[in-house]
């Protein structure tokens, strides 16, 4: 018996993303970590949803992405996948779940795919994680790379400033991008690097390059949903465009509700049985 998708919507696949790059159609990507938000983002027509380990910051309130666990990532991913009908869902393999060795990397990727129903995983790094990337890919799991500012290595970098401004680091990044493409990654994220370098990378590889703080000359863009909606307020890097002011909208709505409860205006007769 064959199983068909229940909707008329055509699901985004890694193949479709490749085609989009070929015809120079920009790819849109946002993060989501829960059922309600993922449903809205998907209904709006986003191409890819990233269940990012930024959940560690925006959902759990940690300072870095390091503390989030594989179980927690799978919990978020499962909720997102339940809501999504069209977008390709990519899940970050969290810190400490793939760097040890390639067997551990494969086990983590398989757990994410099997338990959440996601469509791909993302890992941070280049040549140094090559073996893990190859091993995950050999199991048939699509892998997205992530180069430039890689937040899981924040304690090595020491700061969240722009990466690869120097020739040597820029050269390594370009090499890493080619290595990840050769391994078979279906796409790459480039975070917080000079726009000119990002353009060189996007031209040098045939796989889609998705930028965050990497300028306009890449194949698509990704932002953290809570940042672009104005839910988080303290994080305002230059690359962030804020599309709404949801924190203040919520503050106003909750404030009004509190007032109505205190004044016994809510509930009224129509709102009672
Ligand atoms: O975890 C995340 O949200 C990310 C994006 C910043 C690309 O990796």
UniProtKB/TrEMBL annotation:
Keywords: Cytoplasm, Magnesium, Metal-binding, Methyltransferase, Pantothenate biosynthesis, Transferase. InterPro entries: Pantoate_hydroxy_MeTrfase, Pyrv/PenolPyrv_kinase-like_dom, Pyrv_kinase-like_dom_sf. It is found in: Cytoplasm. It holds the Pfam family Pantoate_transf. One of its GO terms (molecular function) is magnesium ion binding. It is an enzyme of class 2 (transferase). It catalyses: (6R)-5,10-methylene-5,6,7,8-tetrahydrofolate + 3-methyl-2-oxobutanoate + H2O = 2-dehydropantoate + (6S)-5,6,7,8-tetrahydrofolate. GO terms for biological process: methylation; pantothenate biosynthetic process. Pathway: Cofactor biosynthesis; (R)-pantothenate biosynthesis; (R)-pantoate from 3-methyl-2-oxobutanoate: step 1/2. Its cofactor is Mg(2+). Mg(2+) binds at residues 53, 92, 124. The keyword Hydrolase does not apply. The keyword Transferase applies. Binds 1 Mg(2+) ion per subunit. Transmembrane segments: none annotated. The active site is at residue 191. 3-methyl-2-oxobutanoate binds at residues 53-54, 92, 122. Its EC number is 2.1.2.11. One of its GO terms (cellular component) is cytoplasm. Catalyzes the reversible reaction in which hydroxymethyl group from 5,10-methylenetetrahydrofolate is transferred onto alpha-ketoisovalerate to form ketopantoate. Homodecamer; pentamer of dimers. This is 3-methyl-2-oxobutanoate hydroxymethyltransferase. The gene is panB.
């Amino acid at each position: 018996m064959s199983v068909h998708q229940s909707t008329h919507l055509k699901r985004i696949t890694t193949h479709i993303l490749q085609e989009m790059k070929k015809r120079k159609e920009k790819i849109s990507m946002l993060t989501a970590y829960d059922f309600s938000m993922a449903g809205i983002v998907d209904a709006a027509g986003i191409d890819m949803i990233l269940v990012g380990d930024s959940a560690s910051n925006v959902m759990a309130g940690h300072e870095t992405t390091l503390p989030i666990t594989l179980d927690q990532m799978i919990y978020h991913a499962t909720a997102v996948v339940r809501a999504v009908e069209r977008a390709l869902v990519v899940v970050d393999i969290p810190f400490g779940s793939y760097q040890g060795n390639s067997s551990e990397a494969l086990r983590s990727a398989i757990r994410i795919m099997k338990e959440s129903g996601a469509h791909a995983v993302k890992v941070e790094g280049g040549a140094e994680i090559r073996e893990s990337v190859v091993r995950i890919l050999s199991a048939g799991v699509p892998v997205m790379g992530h180069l430039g500012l890689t937040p899981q290595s924040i304690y090595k970098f020491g700061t969240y400033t722009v990466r690869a401004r120097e020739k040597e680091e820029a050269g390594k990044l370009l090499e890493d991008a080619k290595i990840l493409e050769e391994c078979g990654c279906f796409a790459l994220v480039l975070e917080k690097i000079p726009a000119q370098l990002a353009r060189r990378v996007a031209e040098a590889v045939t796989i889609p390059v998705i930028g965050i703080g990497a300028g306009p000359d890449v194949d698509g863009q990704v932002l953290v949903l809570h940042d672009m909606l104005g839910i988080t307020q303290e994080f305002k890097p230059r690359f962030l465009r804020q599309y709404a002011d949801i924190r203040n909208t919520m503050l106003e709505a909750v404030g009004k509700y509190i007032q109505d409860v205190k004044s016994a205006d809510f509930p009224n007769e129509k709102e009672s049985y």
